[in-house]
Amino acid sequence: TGGPEAFDCLWNDDQMGEGWSDYLASMLTMRATDERSLARPMGTYTRVQPNSGQGIRPAAYSTDMAVNPYTYGDSNDPAITMPHGIGFIWATMLWDFTWDLIDEYGMDPDLNGGDGGNNVALGLVMDGMKLQACEPGMVDGRDAILLADSLYHDAANSCLLWNAFARRGLGLSAQQGSTDDRFDQVEAFDVPAACVGIGVAGTGAAPPAFRLLPNPAQGAVSVRLATPVQAGAQ
């Protein structure tokens, strides 16, 4: 990260190195039969847990907010460790937009030559690492991925990415503060004006007011709102 002339760029407090590790491990073990609601824990073996256990992170990776409710603001919580917990929140965001891209373009099991949403996502994450500044925070990482999409895909996925990041609190108005101060992050759930009303998978259709997941359900269901509810909202 930090470009070809840089090295030793991931020592700052807000750096997301452990998140990229988790993301790459999850991507390279993804199966064509996986679904976005599937919970993907990390490191269950080291905790002597079954594959359905929580693993070594605060939650399993999942786009389901009932399984993994973490957002950018949670990175201010002292209980979220640095760098592992900080990276976990970043990987949660990457996992979300990966599944939005899979919904848009499908999944291709060919990691090297495929053209599915998983291939697009993996390319954007890798190119983002190359494009971002040394000692990055999550806003830097977000902007680098958006830049990669602009450079290599003519910004075709811009609104999809914005909506995915905003869903996890890394929206347009989010502030990372100093990348050496892990307690000054400010989350936001807004998107650029051009992306308001664009479906989370970039279809151009307005998202429904809410979704019930899973559908059909057996037992518990979660409600996903199109507009996140702020704390204290009436």
What would you say this structure looks like, in words?
32% of the residues lie in helices and 3% in strands. It starts with 16 loop residues before the first helix and ends in a 9-residue tail after the last strand. It has helices spanning 17-28, 84-105, 117-131, 138-153, 158-167; strands at residues 210-213, 222-225. With 234 residues, the protein is mainly alpha-helical. The chain has a two-stranded antiparallel sheet with strand order 1-2.
Salient structural properties:
234 residues, two-stranded antiparallel sheet, mainly alpha, 3% strand
Fold blueprint:
Elements: H1 17-28, H2 84-105, H3 117-131, H4 138-153, H5 158-167, E1 210-213, E2 222-225
Antiparallel strand pairs: 1-2
Could you give a quick summary of the protein structure above?
The protein is mainly α and 234 residues long.
Global mean pLDDT? 88
Largest sheet: 2 strands, antiparallel
Q: Identify low-pLDDT runs.
A: 201-208, 211-216
How many β-strand runs?
2
How are the strands of the largest sheet arranged? Answer: 1-2
Cα(first) to Cα(last) distance is: 43 Å
Q: What is the gyration radius calculated from CA atoms?
A: 17 Å
What is the chain-wise order of helices and strands?
HHHHHEE
Shape: globular
User: Into which percentage range does the β-strand content fall?
Assistant: under 5%
Number of helices, where a helix is a run of at least 4 consecutive DSSP H or I residues: 5
Helix amount = 25-40%
Structural class from helices and strands? mainly alpha
